[in-house]
């Protein structure tokens, strides 16, 4: 039995661990320096959301090419080269982990500003910014996980384990 299993799919526990560490770090950084940081841009969390949407669209395109090849007959589109699928998979893994880190940072910010939102005007503004950022980060994670899912080899094309070894 071979121990080389290639690239594995992103595990939930990995995303949660990265998010937890980032949330703790974010909370500590904000609690130490909140009074000296400039106002946060309201739509700072929109960029990760756009990246997540772009990865979801790319995943849908990859999946349609993989399925077209699987359905047999003459495919209208060329099959997905294995290296392209591997690159997409690595991009998805990196993006999902980066999204978990961003989500953790936004959670850390929210943990600090939400209790102060009723008394500090800047904290009230940053609560809305943090919520937008958190949603954008979750969209980024979702798009990356969808792209990763789309890179799966169809079941009938997966290599069967050699039982004679």
Describe the structure using short key phrases.
165 residues, 66% helix, 4 helices, mainly alpha, elongated
Helix content: 55-70%
Q: What would you report as the Rg, rounded to the nearest angstrom?
A: 21 Å
Mean pLDDT: 85
What would you call the quaternary organization? single chain
Residue stretches low in confidence (pLDDT < 50, at least 5 long) are none
| Total number of strands | 0
Put simply, the count of helices is 4
The 3D shape can be described as elongated
User: Main sheet, how many strands, which sense, barrel?
Assistant: none
Order of helices and strands: HHHH
> In whole angstroms, how far apart are the ends?
7 Å
Sheet/helix structural class? mainly alpha
Strand content: under 5%
What does this entry look like structurally?
It is built from 4 helices and no strands. The protein is elongated, with a radius of gyration of 21 Å. The N and C termini lie close together (7 Å). Helices cover 66% and strands 0% of the residues. By secondary structure, the protein is mostly helical. The mean pLDDT is 85. α1 packs parallel to α3.
Secondary structure layout:
Layout: H1 12-33, H2 46-70, H3 82-113, H4 121-150
Helix pairs in contact: 1-3, 2-3, 2-4, 3-4
Quick recap:
This protein is an all-alpha fold and 165 residues long. The chain has 4 helices and no strands.
